[in-house]
Amino acid sequence: MTTIQRNRIRWVALWSVLALAIGTLAIGETLFAQRQPGDQSRVLQNQIGVQNQRGPLVPNQGFANTPLAFRNVAQQAFPSIVSIEAFGRGSGSCRGSGPIHQRGSGFSIGPDGGIVTSSRVVAGADRVRIRTSDGTTYLASSVATDPLTDLSVLRFSPALNIPAMPLANSDAAQIGDWVLAVGNKATPDVLMNEQVAAGVISSRGPGPGVARREDLLQTDIPFGSVSAGSPLLNLNGEVVGIHTTLGANSDGTPQGGVIIPSNLLNTVSRQLIDNGTVQRAYLGVSTQSVDSQMAKQFALPANSGALVNQVLPNSPAAQANILPGDVVQTVNGIPVADGHRLQGIADSLPIGQSIPVGLVRNGNKMTVNVVPAAIPAALAPTPPASQRVLDTTASRPVNNFNDLGVATKPLTPETSPAWAKLSQTNGVLVDSVQPGSPAAEAGLRPGMVIRKVGGSTISAPADLAVANANWADKSGVLMLVSSSRGSRFLIVGGNE
């Protein structure tokens, strides 16, 4: 090789290295520019739109293709998600006979202003208050519940104007899909209410306890990360399901992230909104799955249908001449993988409408027409829950401080909390607060210090009785309180 040739090779190599360095720098500057807050803000504005615009939200296919997917999904969802506080005297509560104060999340799924949530959030409550993303509060006028699926729908009068969340086809959700749980739980100090947690769909199949008839989803998201009633979203911003407390332990703590899928959520919630109850259909058969050994007997592939082992007399199946030994493979065009799947399909069939059932009898495929009937009360998996009217007024009249349901004691060096400045002598210490009382609803908690009531400075418990405050005012009374997180004003009492 000549000297000239060697020099040419050196120059080509040098220019190649230089070009690579320039290209790398340009790419780095582009990525850096994409990460700038201003550009991210523009991306969010373009993809999400104006957040205070009312009306139904729509899926955004662009979310899943951006590095900001989780943030985008959460930002779009927040206006449709509400925090829920339920108050009651304890009648019918799963927590016993005492007063109840339960918290959770809920969200809008339709144009009628209804809010769907987990039944356990509102169980036993006679008064339910929600708070929207802009801080506005409303009292629900009624609640309709389906015990089988742990779903409840809150109604309001007049109807709320909250954007409805789009529902995904949960049958298309696969194990391993990314999902985002988004909640908005009311907290005692009303600070960080928004809750977001990411994970994947980890399992699907029969649910625990009363929901064994239904196909449910499960995620690897720890249940404590979001509250019951929070929606589970895919990366297009669509609702895949709702977090419930099905399968909870005896103390009310859930065993895992159990999700009611969106298809079932839609069916149940629409009936609760339209009728106040959920009416399920039945065929009148008892079935079992076709395992590998049973499949050989019937010359069928394994897991290829539901084997009928009993037909109830005078049932829709009996009237259609379905027989023990038949293997049901499709119902109204829906494939039946096993006996469990058949039960879930049957529940949602149109009552009184003829539907085709594809089956195999003695090795021969055939189709029969069945007219599903409403499931008899004696066979219903749980008694139907009727719609309940809720109290939309104050939990009880407030005519003086004693009606608030709070006990106080003097603020002394011995009783003063560690966070309180001893030089700040005015105020009384909140010793206890009755659950479900007007004080509890207002946010008063034991350990707080009441500094002012109305126009009066408070220095001793006796000052509360003579404070310059109109306790009967329907707008409530302004109260200044302090806690370890600082001072803030509360509105106590009132019925607005």
CATH architecture identity of the largest domain = Beta Barrel
What about the largest sheet? 8 strands, antiparallel
Q: According to CATH, what is the topology of the largest domain?
A: Thrombin, subunit H
Compute the average pLDDT: 79
CATH class of the largest domain: Mainly Beta
Question: What would your notes on this structure say?
Answer:
This protein folds into three domains: 76-275, Beta Barrel (Thrombin, subunit H), CATH 2.40.10.120; 281-379, Pdz3 Domain (Roll); 401-492, Pdz3 Domain (Roll), CATH 2.30.42.10. The chain has 496 residues and is α+β, with helices and mostly antiparallel strands. A hairpin with an 8-residue loop joins strand 9 (194-206) and strand 10. The protein contains ten helices and 28 strands. It has helices spanning 3-34, 37-48, 69-77, 119-122, 262-275, 292-298, 316-319, 339-347, 438-442, 461-465; strands at 81-88, 100-108, 115-118, 127-131, 137-139, 142-146, 151-155, 178-184, 194-206, 215-219, 231-233, 239-243, 257-261, 281-282, 285-289, 306-311, 327-331, 334-335, 355-361, 364-370, 373-374, 388-389, 406-410, 428-433, 449-453, 456-457, 477-483, 486-492. The strands form five sheets. Strands 5-4-1-2-3-7-6-22 form an eight-stranded antiparallel β-sheet. The chain has a six-stranded antiparallel barrel with strand order 8-9-10-13-12-11. Strands 15, 16, 17, 18, 19 and 20 form a six-stranded antiparallel β-sheet that branches.
